[in-house]
Amino acid sequence: MTLSSILWQANQDLAQACLNHSFVQGIAQGNLPRQTFSYYVGQDAFFLQAFARAYSVAAAKCTDWETFQVFHRLTQGVIEELNLHRSYSQEWDVDITTVAAGSATRRYTDFLLATAWQADVATIAAAMSPCMRLYLFLGRELAKNGIPDHQYADWICTYGSDEFEPLARQLEEVVDQEGCDRPELRQTYRYAMQCELDFFESAWSQFV
Among this protein's residues, is 18 annotated catalytic? Predict the structure, then answer.
């Protein structure tokens, strides 16, 4: 097994907890309250801006041109995802330019940016790849029986699509090529996965 596969398998408890979370299941069933999803859209836009910055810092640390290009392409992918959020923001009445980060969002983005500035490329990739692999996993699980016909169909279609797989895989390849199985890398990966679960919980509990 590759290192990225080992890390993903070691955190299946958190991946399943995310899948079974009321927020994600609300998306699956199409009955997630509108204000809850609107809050999530704003927080996710804030998060993605930090994600793009972390990619850029990682790219600057690369010692080979090939890995630099990987991070550059991934940055472009985040920018495209932010464009999707801009379309969401119009539909869901969210001004993503004035979003105030919630505590869970800030904790996650502070962790990512601190890791980007302080750690090596492999550790940065280990901090960022859980988000990519988890969203692909969630999208595919929710699309298993076909894309549903409800207000959150676009979200499921985006993250369950074949186009999202290469983005997740490129980042995992950096983990595999640059990293080695060590406690710090495992702890970094798991902390990021826990941040993902906390992110969903924060959005869900905001209006409960």
Answer: no
